[in-house]
Amino acid sequence: MASKSMILNLSSPEKSLSGIEVQSVTLPGAEGRFTVLSGHAPIISILCEGDVTYITPDGKENVQRISSGFAEVSDNEVSVSAEI
């Protein structure tokens, strides 16, 4: 059975990654780390310093360090605006 995917958009003044197909995204939320999977309920969260970790459909893990920001999850899309 194929796993469901979602889209990750990560933008900062330094770099922009958009339209990345991912299986999961783990974020450094202000209340602790949390993982977003396909079908996640809509949410907006403040992010603190830490790693944004995402896994692509081929199983590759990627990490982007951030210093702060926020994330919005809606309709299988994760949008992150952050300082790197």
From TrEMBL:
Role this protein plays: Produces ATP from ADP in the presence of a proton gradient across the membrane.
Keyword NADP in record: no
UniProt entry keywords in alphabetical sequence: ATP synthesis, CF(1), Ion transport, Membrane, Transport
Similarity comment: family membership: Belongs to the ATPase epsilon chain family.
Main location: membrane
Recorded topology in the membrane: Peripheral membrane protein
One Gene Ontology MF term: proton-transporting ATP synthase activity, rotational mechanism
Pfam family, one: ATP-synt_DE_N
UniProt name for this protein: F0F1 ATP synthase subunit epsilon
Location(s) in or outside the cell: Endomembrane system
A GO CC annotation given for this chain: proton-transporting ATP synthase complex
Domain of life, source organism: Bacteria
